[in-house]
Amino acid sequence: MASVRNLKKDINYVLGDIIEAVYIHEMTTTGKPTAQTDALIDEAITSFDGLITKLNQKNVENKKAHFRQINKDLEAAANQLVEKINAL
Q: How far, in Å, are 9, 23, 37, 74, 77 from residue 5 at the CA level?
């Protein structure tokens, strides 16, 4: 099982890289934010907040399964956001 610290870092790095990819897309296409890119950034921030909230829950019966589920949720959210970026 990964430590909580490493899981927090993974969440931060993955979603941070996705936001950075949106900014790069903005710079290479229009040079300014659009409604679609703003929505993607907001969705990434919302996903980050939700995952960190789940990670900080204290009343969990099986911590190992809980952290494994958070890791799966991170992967699913990241894949979904990357697909949306690719569709731009």
A: 6, 27, 30, 15, 20
